């Protein structure tokens, strides 16, 4: 069970989760999936100070998702950043996962919802490694999903939009049902895009490769951080389309995301990635990433908002 914080932020007010967390069964978002969300992590850093990782970028993306949907959360970037910090403080959480959520409320029950009220909420909970501590340390097994990442003619791939995650959920459920840890999703042309909730990287002949943002991936904020750190550490990073055989023949494969952080992949579709063990490049990037977010490496202070 998830250990939720006892307090949440809703429409500008910190309230008890037990009351303010209730949503009407007639809320438009529950029926049609129109809404936006984010996933943000706060870390306890060296010296004991808590800080939110890349809060500015996450809040900016939340507002972009709302703009894509044509809904107004009612708060600007500074207000939402302050609200995220307030939720952590109210729950006395030094480490947590934050979930801002913008929902279309009760009003019209048809497809047109521009006149419905909008609720903006932020909740927090303690959440360890999304794919498990063992997965972070020893790697996970992935299965290519039959469910495709929807192309731009039928979705808004730049947004974290509630309804767009149905196929991701189906892909994840199918993979776990078949004994795997995670799914890999292709686009409608057969190129590898991402995991069900993570961005994908491979390592081949010393180069770090990842699908470009011009494909149908979500432009991940952790993905962006890993590209920056990899280049700083001397790795050649290329953004290009990847096929399944690129992944099958990779020297290393790993997933990145706010929840997953950096998780190695040691097997795809029953094929071991190299020796079926975590590779050196992945290990190096994991070490650098965790040193930065934990405050042992202070090279990117602009990425952190103190609580």
How would you describe what is shown here?
This protein is of the alpha+beta class and 307 residues long. It has nine helices and 18 strands. The strands form two sheets. Strands 1, 2, 3, 4, 5, 6, 7, 8 and 18 form a nine-stranded antiparallel beta sheet that branches. Strand 5 (40-44) and strand 6 form a beta hairpin. The protein is globular and about 55 Å long. It starts with a strand and ends with a strand.
The proportion of strand residues reads 25-35%
Q: Averaging pLDDT over every residue, what do you get?
A: 96
Q: Count of helices? A: 9
Radius of gyration: 19 Å
Q: Major sheet: size, sense and barrel closure?
A: 9 strands, antiparallel
| Total DSSP E strands | 18
Contiguous runs where pLDDT drops below 50 for at least 5 residues: none
What structural class do helix, strand and pairing data support?
A: alpha+beta
Distance between the termini: 26 Å
Helix-strand topology string: EEEHHEEEHHEEHEHEEEEHEHEEEHE
Estimate percent helicity.
25-40%
The shape is globular
Oligomer: single chain
List keywords for this structure.
alpha+beta; 9 helices; 29% helix; 28% strand
What is the structure about, briefly put?
With about 300 residues, the protein is an alpha+beta fold. The protein contains 9 helices and 18 strands. Strands 1, 2, 3, 4, 5, 6, 7, 8 and 18 form a 9-stranded antiparallel beta sheet that branches. Strands 9, 10, 11, 12, 13, 14, 15, 16 and 17 form a 9-stranded mixed beta sheet that branches.
């Amino acid at each position: 069970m998830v250990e939720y914080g006892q307090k949440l932020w809703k429409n500008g007010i910190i309230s008890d989760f037990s009351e303010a967390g209730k949503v009407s069964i007639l809320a438009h978002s529950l029926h049609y999936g129109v809404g936006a969300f984010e996933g943000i992590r706060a870390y306890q850093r060296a010296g004991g100070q808590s800080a939110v990782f890349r809060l500015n970028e996450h809040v900016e993306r939340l507002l972009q998702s709302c703009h894509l949907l044509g809904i107004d959360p009612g708060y600007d970037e500074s207000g939402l950043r302050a609200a995220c910090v307030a939720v952590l403080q109210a729950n006395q959480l030094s480490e947590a996962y934050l979930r801002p959520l913008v929902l279309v409320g009760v009003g019209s029950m048809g497809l047109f919802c521009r006149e419905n009220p909008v609720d903006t909420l932020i909740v927090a909970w303690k959440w360890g490694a999304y794919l498990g501590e063992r997965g972070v340390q020893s790697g996970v097994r992935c299965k290519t999903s039959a469910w495709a990442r929807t192309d731009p003619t039928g979705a808004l791939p730049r947004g974290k939009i509630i309804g767009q995650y149905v196929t991701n959920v189906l892909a994840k459920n199918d993979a776990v049902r078949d004994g795997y840890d995670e799914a890999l999703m292709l686009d409608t042309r057969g190129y590898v895009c991402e995991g069900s909730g993570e961005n994908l990287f491979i390592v081949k002949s010393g180069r770090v490769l990842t699908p470009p943002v011009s494909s149908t991936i979500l432009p991940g904020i952790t993905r962006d951080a890993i590209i920056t750190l990899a280049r700083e550490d001397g790795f050649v990073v290329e953004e290009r389309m990847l096929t399944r055989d690129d992944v099958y023949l990779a020297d290393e494969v790993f997933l990145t995301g706010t929840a997953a952080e950096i998780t190695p992949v040691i097997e795809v579709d029953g094929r071991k990635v190299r020796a079926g063990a975590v590779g050196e490049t992945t290990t190096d990037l994991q070490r650098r990433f965790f040193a930065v977010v934990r405050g042992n490496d202070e090279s990117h202070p602009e990425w952190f908002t103190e609580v």
